[in-house]
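Marked as duplicate of an earlier ticket. Keeping the data here for the record.
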Amino acid sequence: MQRISGLKDLAGEYDCLLCDVWGVLHNGVAAFPAAVDALLRFREASGRVVLITNAPRPQASIREQLQRFAVPDAAYDAIVTSGDVTRTVITPHPGMRLFHLGPERDLPLYDGLDVISVSDADAELICCTGLRDDTVEIPDDYRALFERLIERRLRMVCANPDLVVERGDQLVYCAGALARLYVELGGEALLVGKPHAPIYVAAKKQVADLGGRRILAVGDGLPTDIRGAVDNGVPALFVTGGIHAADFGSHSDPDEERIAARLKAENLTAVAYIPGLAWSDASPNR
């Protein structure tokens, strides 16, 4: 594994990127100019970019969010979201009585689906998109609710397997942390996003439709982006300055021995690492 100065160093070896969004392209508050520049330049060099995200909403809402962050449509070719894959799990069950667990901003997930929104007491299925208020809540706040749901043997579909994500300079819990607790308490959860196979099947179909063959995954999350790439046979570029930045010392100059040891400990591999996605050392600041 090598540290690269920018995506330019690898661009000739791959014709399509599976690029993570939150943590690589933006931090939930603002986009990273160097990352946007890298994707634009990769596409200018005839590459293709498929954004792959554990966001629990359809791709149209992610496109709108990226536009608010001034990420141009020209920076990517397609978006595959965990929300879109979740919809394919729910669709075969018309009329399902569904309990939504998550913030109201994720309700577009169900637009156009034949589901009946009900309370937890009347539900046949739980769809978890996150904590209701991730600014103040922690997963353990849901323990009593989960014990009631598990007693009724309700299955949970987790629309975002991320455990935590960056929001500005803070880390906040995601739906994956709730699903983990649900399973620890004895419940059953289906996780459809990274690192699990369903989202990679959808992403690889997008790549094929775009004519891509030599794929490089780009991500900052070891249990999601890098694990997903390894388990689904895709080489990975590890962005160390995301959610694991504090584990490797300096944000801009991470400790290579720590990185190598962490990857080995988790039985993961990456073709290279970079503190923040950029085209070259001369790219705009992250």
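See parent ticket for discussion. The two ends are 23 Å apart (CA to CA).
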